[in-house]
């Protein structure tokens, strides 16, 4: 415990307090000896970084609980089929930097439920770089992260319905064809229709009568 506290730059008393609060996992025990490892040190450094960014110990404890109850990255990414989306590995403090002040236990739980986030040891995996970048951009524009996640959940429902339309189209009319070419064609149709729909909603005066 003394060696871990020294490596983390904290006192043994502070380390005991963190352990009692459940902020770090218990050590591996061999008889009366308690062994700490690099994962414990990484967790302590994460706690220090989050404290520097203004998070409280209660908030960090809630975040830790949310992460530990979330899905493991293997459950999220081991889907058996290839994907075009690029996963992103983040530390908890890097995630906090993307969404300054908005990484709350409630938002974290919502992101875990959507499958946007997963855990892999001390790291966090965001399953789509594009969704991460767009979500962060919307927050920078002033949209609360909770609203972004709610919109993501709503979009998910419609995206599943759109995927069903194209999958049914292919299964009905070209059941023996390779489905790979369907992806870019389906995406082009959806992007074009969404673009036209946004024109109608955001620029109603530009539409021809």
The beta-strand count equals 5
Outline type: elongated
Largest sheet: 3 strands, antiparallel
Q: What is the average per-residue confidence, as pLDDT, rounded to a whole number?
A: 84
For this structure, the CATH topology of the domain at 1-52 is Multidrug-efflux Transporter Regulator, Chain: A, Domain 2
Q: Give the percentage of residues in beta strands.
A: 5-15%
Describe this structure in words.
Among the domains are: 1-52, Orthogonal Bundle (Multidrug-efflux Transporter Regulator, Chain: A, Domain 2); 162-203, no CATH class. By secondary structure, it is mainly alpha-helical. The chain contains ten helices and five strands. Strand 4 and strand 5 (123-126) form a beta hairpin. The strands form two sheets. The protein has a three-stranded antiparallel β-sheet. Helix 4 (57-68) packs parallel to helix 7 and helix 7 packs parallel to helix 9. It is elongated.
Write the layout of secondary structure elements.
Blueprint: H1 2-8, H2 12-20, E1 28-30, E2 33-35, H3 38-52, H4 57-68, H5 73-77, E3 88-90, H6 92-98, H7 105-114, E4 117-120, E5 123-126, H8 129-140, H9 145-173, H10 182-202
Antiparallel strand pairs: 1-2, 3-5, 4-5
Helix pairs in contact: 4-7, 7-9
């Amino acid at each position: 415990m003394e060696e871990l506290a020294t490596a983390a730059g904290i006192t043994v008393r502070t380390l005991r307090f963190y352990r009692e609060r459940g902020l770090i996992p218990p050590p591996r025990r061999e008889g009366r000896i308690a062994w700490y490892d690099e994962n414990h040190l990484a967790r302590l450094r994460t706690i220090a970084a989050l404290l520097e960014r203004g998070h409280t110990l209660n908030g960090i404890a809630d975040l830790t609980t949310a992460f530990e109850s979330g899905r493991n990255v293997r459950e999220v990414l081991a889907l058996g089929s290839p994907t075009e989306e690029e996963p992103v590995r983040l530390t908890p403090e890097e995630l906090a930097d993307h969404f300054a002040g908005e990484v709350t236990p409630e938002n974290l739980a919502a992101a875990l439920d959507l499958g946007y986030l997963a855990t892999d040891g001390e790291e966090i995996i965001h399953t789509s770089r594009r969704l991460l970048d767009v979500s962060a951009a919307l927050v920078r524009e002033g949209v609360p992260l909770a609203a972004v996640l709610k919109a993501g959940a709503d979009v998910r429902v419609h995206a599943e319905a759109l995927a069903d339309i194209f999958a049914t189209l292919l299964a009905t009319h070209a059941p023996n064809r390779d489905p790979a070419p369907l992806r870019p064609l389906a995406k082009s149709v959806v992007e074009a229709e969404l673009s036209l729909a946004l024109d109608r909603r955001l620029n109603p005066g530009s539409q021809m009568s």
